[in-house]
Amino acid sequence: MTPLMWNDIKIIKTNHRLLIKITAAVICASFMFILLGGCQSSENKSTATTIATNQTPDASPSFSFDNLKEATLITVLEAPVGIGDGELSYGDIGDNGIASSGPSDFAVAANGDIYVLDNYHGNGEDRISVYSNGKWERNINLSANVSYGISLTIFNDSLYVFDHNYYQGDAYIVNISFDGTLLDKYIFNKEDTPIDVWRLFAIDEQVVIAAYSSCYALDDATQCAIKSDIRIGDAFEDAYHRKIFYGYSSWIVPIDCLSILPTPLGKTNHNEPFVAYGGDKYICKCDDSGKPLSIAKLDELLKDTVYIKNGFYVALAGSLYIMIGHKDAVRIYKFFET
Question: What span, in angstroms and rounded, lies between the C-alpha atoms of 270 and 209?
Answer without folding.
Answer: 23
